[in-house]
Design goal:
It is a single chain. The chain is an alpha/beta fold and about 250 residues long. The chain has a single domain (about 1-240), classed as Vaccinia Virus protein VP39 (Rossmann fold). The chain has helices at about 1-10, 20-30, 45-55, 65-80, 115-125, 150, 165-170, 185-205, 210-235; strands spanning about 35-40, 60-65, 85-90, 100-110, 130-140, 175-180, 235-240. The chain starts with a helix and ends with a strand. Helix content is about 45%, strand content about 20%. α8 runs antiparallel to α9. Bound molecules: S-adenosylmethionine. S-adenosylmethionine binds near residues 15, 16 and 94. InterPro entries: CFA/CMAS, Methyltransf_25, SAM-dependent_MTases_sf. It holds the Pfam family Methyltransf_25. It comes from Actinomadura sediminis. Keywords: Methyltransferase, Transferase.
Length: about 250
């Protein structure tokens, strides 16, 4: 699966339905500044850490399982002149033990690392200062989906809930939702539909690659489920969650 995403998202910098403007907005909302230390679990190509280091002077550490994405992250840090401010590490974010505490900890679009939203909040919390901020990217159902939708999109029925249900999950976890930046349909199209063309081109250039049949199936399934369910029923956003003070 990781390899499929590496191929399909080769042309993306942000591996989520979030655009550059909203990523900047998120940095402003999170009050990122020169003294802010950020931990990003499942950091992908490190766009958040690199651009916030460049724009705000923040420092950060990213962890991801993909060497391909981490190479892109280090290249991006060089491109933006922030190699002294950000570091990237290969590893399983679920097992990661950060040395010390961070002001802001993030998991943007990979809450499976904590076996769901609640577990990921617990995972981030253990590396965050009291009163610090968690940034969590998570899907939600815009409307009650058809029964077949979760399985078609690769989820278990209870994995995601409505926005109000997501708020309940935050409150049950003991964090306060203080802000959010949500993706709109155009953000989703840019994230998902643009992958179809990337895969189409890759298949044209690599017809005999051992991954070609799986990539063809990946693109076929993505198109079908996106247009049938995802675009209409599935929302996505980054939620800013404040921890209680010490
Ligand atoms: C949807 S992408 C999000 C990447 C990044 N947060 C962003 O917004 O651009 C999910 C990321 O999770 C990474 N990943 C998946 N499982 C992981 C794990 N157990 N530990 C660390 N990274 C993981 C993938 O390699 C991928 O980069």
């Amino acid at each position: 699966m990781l390899r499929h995403h590496e191929i399909a998202e080769a042309d993306h910098r942000i591996l989520n339905p979030l655009n550059d403007r909203k990523l900047r907005l998120l940095g402003d909302i999170a009050r990122i500044g020169p003294d802010t230390r950020i931990l990003d679990l499942a950091c992908g190509k490190g766009e958040m850490l690199c651009t916030w280091a460049a724009a705000h002077g923040a420092t950060g550490h990213g962890v991801d399982l993909s060497d391909t994405f981490l190479t892109a992250a280090r290249d991006r840090a060089r491109e933006l002149g922030v190699t002294g401010r950000v570091t990237f590490e290969h590893g399983d974010a679920a097992r990661h033990r950060a040395p010390g505490l961070f002001d802001v900890t993030a998991c943007i679009g990979a809450t499976w690392i904590g076996d769901g939203l609640t577990g990921t909040i617990a995972l981030l919390r253990r590396s965050t200062v009291p009163g610090g901020l968690l940034l969590v990217g998570e899907p939600y159902w815009i409307d009650e989906p058809p029964e077949a939708a979760p399985a078609a999109l690769g989820f278990a029925p209870g994995d995601f809930v409505t926005l109000a249900g997501t708020l309940d999950r935050f409150e049950d976890a003991g964090v306060e939702l203080v802000e959010m930046v949500l993706a709109d349909t155009d953000d989703w199209d840019r994230y998902v539909a643009s992958q179809w063309q990337t895969v189409h081109t890759w298949l044209h250039d690599n017809p005999d690659d051992p991954d070609a049949p799986a990539m063809r199936e990946f693109a076929d399934r993505s198109r079908r489920t996106y247009l049938t369910y995802n675009r209409r029923y599935l929302g996505w956003g980054v939620f800013a969650l404040r921890l209680p003070p010490a």
